[in-house]
Amino acid sequence: MSDFAQQIEHLRPHLLRFARTQLRNDAWAEDAVSETLLAALERPQSFGGQSQLKTWMIGILKHKVVDQLRRHTREATILVGEDGEDLDDALFLADGHWRDAPQDWGDPDAACSRRQFFDVLQACCENLPPVQARVFMMREWLELESDEICLELAITTSNLWVLLHRARLRLRDCLQVRWFNAAPASIEPA
Amino acid sequence: MKNTLTCREATRLLLEDEEHELPAADRLALQVHVKICFACERFVSQLNFMRRATRAWRKHSETDDGESGRS
Q1: Contact call for A17 and B52, based on CB within 8 A
Q2: A114 in contact with B at a CB cutoff of 8 Å?
Q3: What is the pLDDT of residue B45?
Q4: pTM recorded for the entire structure
Q5: Which of A33, A44, A128, A187 qualifies as a cystine partner to A133, CB 3.0-4.6 A?
Q6: Which domains does chain A show, CATH number per domain?
Q7: Which of A54, A55, A172 sits opposite B46 (nearest CB)?
Q8: Residue A27 to residues A23, A36, A100, B66: CA-CA distances in angstroms?
Q9: Is residue A143 classed as helix, strand or coil in its secondary structure?
Q10: A5-28: per-residue pLDDT in tens?
Q11: Residue A76: predicted pLDDT
Q12: Which long-range contacts (CB under 8 A, 24 or more apart) does A71-79 make?
């Protein structure tokens, strides 16, 4: 195996983790990673060495992840209703006031300096209902525009907004419970 | 335009604001509400927190070599 091929193969676990987080389906993630490795091996000359190899590979992988999503959208049966009720009813009183006022979460940089925080964030994303998780990741990780997401998933923009609305409220709820309400030891600075 | 929003309505608009630019009337009503409502002001901070944290997480995942947990 050439040196280049070895370096690329060495990145496989890292790429797989990234793809799994995105796709939440091991078979699809494996396919996306294999296609990425293949693309890299077929065109080593397009890696100019100007960026880190890993960054270049992640760039290719993002495209392959979108390809997978596109390919499997038909299988995924997108139904906005399947994600269940809005959290809103639990969060607000009948008169529209907060049941419990949102807490002060402090400085994001402080939380992000702790590795466990990302584990919690990832777990919270994985706990989202599948369609919410998918649109959230497409939006925040793959940085796709709303129009592209709607096209890929064959949903309307108002469907997309509802899904993202629900996803963000659930994520907020999960972070509150699993990070901010967790044992004080876990939120002390590293 | 409604000039008073409930917290529930303000929250919906704040979440919508993450996705697309709000109509001027909504934006104004929202600005007023957040100025006078500490709970919704906190919610705005939480949205900012989540946005920055997600970005940091993505960066971390793109560059993490999987070894840092043991270092």
Answers
A1: no
A2: no
A3: 96
A4: 0.80
A5: A128
A6: 3-76 (1.10.1740), 80-187 (1.10.10.10)
A7: A172
A8: 9, 14, 42, 21
A9: coil
A10: 888 888 899 899 888 888 888 999
A11: 52
A12: A72/A25, A72/A28, A73/A152, A73/A153, A73/A154, A76/A130, A76/A131, A76/A134, A76/A153, A78/A131, A78/A153, A78/A154, A78/A155, A79/A131
Q: Does A7 touch chain B (CB under 8 A)?
A: no
B57/A88 touch (CB, cutoff 8 Å), yes or no: no
Question: Chain-wide mean pLDDT for chain A?
Answer: 84
What pLDDT is recorded for position A190?
45
Nearest residue of chain A to residue B19 (CA atoms) = A161
Residues of A in contact with B64 (CB under 8 A): 14
CA A52, CA A116: separation in Å to the nearest integer?
Answer: 26
Indicate which of A165, A175, A176 best probes the interface with B, i.e. most B CBs within 10 Å of its own CB. Answer: A165
pLDDT (tens digit per residue) in A132-156: 888 898 898 888 888 888 888 888 8
Region of A93 on the Ramachandran plot (φ > 0 left; ψ -120 to 50 alpha; else beta): beta
Q: If we measure between CA atoms, which residue out of B26, B60, B19 comes closest to residue A118?
A: B60
For residues B9-14, give the mean pLDDT: 94
Closest Cα of chain A to B42: distance in Å?
6
Which letter, b or e, does each residue of A3-38 get, where b requires 16 or more Cβ atoms within 10 Å of its Cβ?
A: eeeeebeebeebbbbbbbbbbbbeebbbbbbebbbe
- Nearest 10 degrees: CA dihedral of B62, A22, B44, A80? 170
